[in-house]
Design the sequence.
């Protein structure tokens, strides 16, 4: 029995539905183990070629983000270290892009937050 190589796992993209990296190939498709979303491998290759690591921070739909943009949350998010929840559809104004794992610095209801761009849609 052969084990899958590390190259196979690194070639798999993140899921376009939930943005998680727990994706595996199955025939001509990719399947996300977290949300069970399936999509063809050809579409993933086109998306990767269009948005190759060009250093531009993009929202969930692939639109480039810039300082001062307004965005909307596409998913309800729990605030770490608190019992608060940021509701899906919350509009966030005047974002600021920063480096690191969480690319977007903003204020939600007067509280400073760092968010990942994969949970935001440009409005």
Sequence:
């Amino acid at each position: 029995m052969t084990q899958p190589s590390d190259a196979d796992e690194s070639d798999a993209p993140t899921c376009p539905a939930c943005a998680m990296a727990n994706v595996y190939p199955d025939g001509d498709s990719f399947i996300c183990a977290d949300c069970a979303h399936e999509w063809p491998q050809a579409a993933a290759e086109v998306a990767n070629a269009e948005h190759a690591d060009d250093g531009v921070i993009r929202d969930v739909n692939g639109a480039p983000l810039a300082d001062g943009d307004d965005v909307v949350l596409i998913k309800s998010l729990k605030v770490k270290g608190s019992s608060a929840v940021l509701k899906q559809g919350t509009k966030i104004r005047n974002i600021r892009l920063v480096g690191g794992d969480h690319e977007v610095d903003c204020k939600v209801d007067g509280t400073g937050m760092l968010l990942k761009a994969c949970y935001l849609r440009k409005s």
Observations:
- Residues 1-9 have pLDDT under 50 and may be disordered.
- The chain has two helices and eleven strands.
- The longest strand covers residues 104-108.
